[in-house]
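Hi D.,

Good news: the full-assembly prediction came through. Inputs first.
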Amino acid sequence: MVKFALPAGSNPVKGKLHKNETGATNIRNFHIYRYDPDTGGSPQIDTFEVDLDICGPMVLDALIMIKDKMDSTLTFRRSCREGVCGSCSFNVDGTNTLACTKPIAEIKGDVKIYPLPHLPVIKDLVCDLSHPYAQYSAIEPWLKADTPPPERERLQSEEDRAKLDGLWECILCFCCQTSCMSYWWSGDRFYGSAVLLQADRWVQDSRDEAKGERLTELNDSYKLFRCHTIMNCTASCPKGLNPAKAIGHLKNQVARRE
Amino acid sequence: MSMRSPLGQARGSGSTDHGVQHWLAERFGAIALVPLGLWFVYSMLGLIGADYNAYQEWQSQPGNLILTILFLLALFHHAHMGLTVVLEDYVQPEWLKNTSVLVLKYTAFFLCTACILSALRVTFTA
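Then the structure:
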């Protein structure tokens, strides 16, 4: 049956307590998922006492301060620190989001930081995104046109360009993708919300000439129709996009061909 | 452990190009069940406390018989489609998934046939 419980050895156990000995008064506990492939064993939840008086406002600021001042072995992805690159997506306080745009002040009580759900963990907060990236490749996210390119750019009306708003802004952080239960259970075949939003971005593009081919490829009980409109994707998107709407549009486009 | 490339795994066996038919059939069934379900509940409420003869008289009206049969077809068709998706979602081993989907299909056909035959029998043994 469905694996509701984690496999043996995957259940996190209580880890180390990293005390703050500086006499700081504005302390917040950060509980962070740790897994080291070299030592193996069960993952641990380490607790870090972070001095908020010398820490920046965002969750990512705390992570960087922990790595700098408390435990340099803490491993996580980050780059732009302003919600553009999509690297620092974690499960923070029970919701998938970008650590760089999530203020610590929005979280009540202790801060819990886990890797994105239901992906293989490489180390600590770094998970293996090979499969979602490969699914993104599979939808062929580039302009396909048989009409030879004009001398200058392929033209698009302002109205047609406006159809891509709410789609092009996706930064592929996979917060939505990994918040979806359908993706947890059937992610091997279901494309997931981030990939389907990207598919819609090309289906909607007036310059693309491969719409039919794209819709044929998506018309499958698993690839597209495993979406049950749970809408966790829209609830979790840190960029405020609406992947559920894009998926609804794709289903509609496929249905209109019948 | 497979050494197949991630892209090969993501593409899998390709698209069946008929997922939308199941999706549409589920929705058409649901739409049909709204009026049929309301009619059925309304009719049953009218028969509360009635004896078998009253029920038989009700069931023997041609309009009631047709609507009953349509209601049963829509109900079992919709239940079968919805439960199939639940099994596909939650049953992981391939053999168990396929077996349970088949058992569900046959059970739905059996129960639907039994219900329709019952309605016909009540109507025509008056």
